[in-house]
Amino acid sequence: MARTPSRSAVEDALYQAQELVFQAWDARTAKRRIALATKALQISPLCADAYGILAEHSPPGSEAALEFWTAGEKAGREALGRDFKRMEGEFWGFMETRPYMRLRFGLASALWHRGETGQAVEHLQAMLRLNPNDNQGVRYILVNWLAELGRDDELAALLEQYREDDMAQWRWTAALAAFRRDGAGAASQRALSEAMASNAHVAAFLCGTKAMPKRQPLYYSPGEASEAQVYVEEAKPAWNKTPGALDWVSTHSAPTDGPARRASRKPGTPRRH
Q1: Do residues 227 and 168 make contact, with C-beta atoms less than 8 angstroms apart?
Q2: Which of 134, 153, 186 is the last residue in one of the domains?
Q3: Rounded to an integer, what distance in angstroms lies between the CA atom of residue 38 and that of residue 90?
């Protein structure tokens, strides 16, 4: 009769597997990364990040990629065991929760790109409950998804939850939400003014008076054109689905080529791919 591994043995195996994942992240070739991830899963099937590597090297949008993301999210949850509930509200603050959070983010993104938008939204909403501090920048993805889907009540609640956020992603979507709610009134105009103060470059990219760069920036800086590009790439569908919104921005804002309002810094928000 097979013996059940002790908790310490399971933890040791997971530690060894995670060490291989670290090597895989530094590997120069896809073949090497895949080989190390496969070996990691042979050592510990609870190694969520190994599934993530295999998902990222599967054809985008494929069933295989979705299966890897799904299996990785399940493995990450199982690895946390009873600690999952105990850590709720403080995820990411504990190192051992991070593989799970990475895989759940990947799963949500995969579902969204496959058109399973309801499930994708539910995953990100759950992630914010697990980690309200939102170290991964999940809210910047979710706010655009809710806007694109027209789920305005949930959008308003999310905007209120992080109302002190002054990134362009937040202020410009808040302006869109205000326009949907009030039209071109005083309240929406105040929201647009705040959005322009956050990053005035957005208006030109949104309205097409300035062409979007062909290359996506690896990093972006608050108040600069790089931040505006990142926002418009992700939020344009929601603006396009709001009748009159782009004309309103074009009429009530002026493009700028001036300096950034704030000092440059690398963001903590991951790009969605």
Answers
A1: yes
A2: 134
A3: 30
Residue 72 in contact with residue 52, Cβ under 8 Å? yes
Cα–Cα distance for residue pair 16/100, rounded to 1 Å: 17
- pTM over 0.90, yes/no: no
Flag whether pLDDT at 252 surpasses 90: no
The helix-helix angle for 48-56 and 63-80 (nearest 10°) equals 170
Question: 251 and 128 in one domain?
Answer: no
Please tell me whether residues 166 and 270 are part of one structural domain. yes
CA distances from residue 170 to 147, 158, 194 in whole angstroms, order as listed: 12, 10, 10
Give the Cα separation of 218 and 238 in Å (integer): 23
Domain that holds residue 198: 137-273
pLDDT digits (tens, 9 = 90+) for 60-105: 989 999 999 999 999 999 999 999 999 999 999 999 999 999 999 9
**Cα torsion angle, 186, 192, 194, 200, sign:** negative
Report the alpha-carbon distance of residue 193 to residue 89 in Å, rounded: 34
What is the 3-state composition of the chain as percent helix, strand, coil, each rounded to the nearest 5? 65, 0, 35
State the average pLDDT over residues 34-39.
98
Q: 193-244, pLDDT tens digit by residue?
A: 999 999 999 999 999 999 999 888 888 999 999 999 999 999 999 999 999 9
What is the helix (H) or strand (E) element at residue 90, kind and residue range?
A: none
List Cβ neighbours of 43 (8 Å cut-off, separation of 6 or more): 13, 16, 17, 20
Amino acid, res. 101: M
